[in-house]
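Support request, please re-run this one:
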Amino acid sequence: MVTAPPVIDFGPFYGDDAAKKADLVQQVRQACERHGFFQIINHRIPSDIQEAILQQAREIFGLPLEVKEKYSREIDPVNLGYERLRAQSFGEGPGDLKESFYLCRDFPPGHPLIGRFSLGLNKYPKEMRDLALFQSTANRYHTVMADLAVDIFRVLAQTLNLEEHWFDSFCHDSANIMRLLRYPPQPANGLERGIGAHTDFGGLTILLQDDKGGLQVWDRESSQWADANPVPGALVVNLGNMLMRWTNDRYLSNLHRVINTSGQERYSVPFFISGNLDYLVECIPSCKAATEEAKYPPITVEEWLEARYADTYGGAGVGELSTDVVEAHVMTRS
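Re-run finished. Output below.
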């Protein structure tokens, strides 16, 4: 039987009920081991900012192609800005049926993080109907999602029998990237992919999706794709390859894809949490026995990201790893 990623009530994290908090930790632990994916409700991200960022995505992709191309992510080396339709390809075919726009945290000129992995000065299309609104909405969304990421990592710490704040230094000055995505309607021939099967290569991804559906997650036990159907107000959380490595493969970074069969345009906003670029990722102590060797050597976040990006650029983008690189590794864990 195909099992979809669970929907988990995150509200107990903000409450005082110890039993409900413990149940939340247990549910997240099971989801990390079984799926590498889960959806959360009652996460305190206001519905108005969710709808506002989706509306800005609709507007930016409604600009003429020649305007969007002026803000192409290929113009400078930090990979921010517009990515044209079919620029990525996860698998065979003409390229994935989507277009995107990358944004990082809004840095002031001269900030020391500018120029490091996928961080720099954002490109804000002056042709937007309300440029100030676009900029403020993107920045507000970045802020609230970064805060939520800290909360999720505090639950993850407890799932690994760590002190709640164990991941805080990893999250400080995290190299977070937001990606606005538009998926056109797909022909009903079964050959197209909005985005082909892949894993994310950072620490954690928090995804806002509209109500059109199309996200599928690989269910290892049934060896079939499971639909992660949209739940009103919910956010999808999935683990990346760096966290899988960090936990000595205890937790799963799972394959997922999008097939937009809704007959309408689909919009989503993944928020990639990669961590502090200087942070040293080495096997979490609770993820191996005292006499056991770690499967992977220590590596800094920036070294990991740059190596993965070098492996996948041309077929995958910031925060994603293509099927041909990781599928065998992921599937052998079933």
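The chain has one domain: 7-331. The domain at 7-331 is CATH 2.60.120.330 (Jelly Rolls).
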